[in-house]
Each structure stands twice: as C-alpha cells, then as structure tokens.
Amino acid sequence: MTDVTRAPQTQRTLVLVKPDGVRRGLSGEILGRLEAKGYTLVAVELRTADEALLAAHYAEHRGKPFYAPLVEFMGSGPILAVVAEGERVIEGFRSLAGTTDPTSASPGTIRGDLGRDWGLAVQQNLVHGSDSPESARREIALWFPSL
User: Fold this and answer.
1) What is the pTM of this model?
2) Of 111, 128, 130, 139, which residue is the catalytic one?
3) Catalytic site residue 57?
C-alpha cells in the first residue's frame, strides 16, 4: 500500500466580520469558531474601513451592480479584520462560513446558524474570507500592511 498522506499546507487568510456581525455582537462567536477549528489568530483589529481601502479590496467587482451598495454597507460601521493561519485555512474557513446566502447556508456554518436574510445576501452575510492564496496575500497586504 502506498501512503498518500497530504503534505501540510499552512496558509494565512483574511477574515472580516462585516458591520452586521459586529453590530449584532457576533465577533466573539465567530472568533471562537475559528479557534475551535484549530486556526491561529495572527492579527485582529477592529476598524472602520475608509472608501480607498474598500475600493482596493473589492476592485474586481467595480462596475458590477452590487459594488456601490457593498462598499457603502462595508463602510457603515466597524469591521473586525482578522488574519488566521492554519493548514488549508482558506478552504476551511470558507466551509466554516457557509454559502453566501444565509437562508440556504447549511446548519453548523456561521451563516447557516447566525445569518439572517435581509434580502441583501451578497452584502449582509456576516463574514468575508479570502477565496484563494493569491487573494489572501493581496487582501492581507491591504488590511495588515505590516505583516
């Protein structure tokens, strides 16, 4: 038999607890789920993002119908920005977060358990997580340039 053990893939990802999650007091619950999953919190900062940061973060969506409302929503209040680290953390956090629509997100996920459908699923869905190693590097550099 051949041993097909996976090589460790330690990664970093950016996690944002969006303004709706911060307003509802869910930051601790979301951080707890990250830590319970075994990920390490490398950096955590509560901040209000300015328009320049949000424009850079969401640059690939510029020109899409949801871009302006998304940037407006993300600037509407504090955001908890987190860099998490662990084996396959990008994939793991996205699974932990659940699908972007809180109504159809699976029970046991952040959005499935805690999300509410305000008719604004693309915007008010509690969390953001990087979708690839390249996105993670770009996003971490924007939110935490000293890392």
Assistant:
1) 0.90
2) 128
3) no
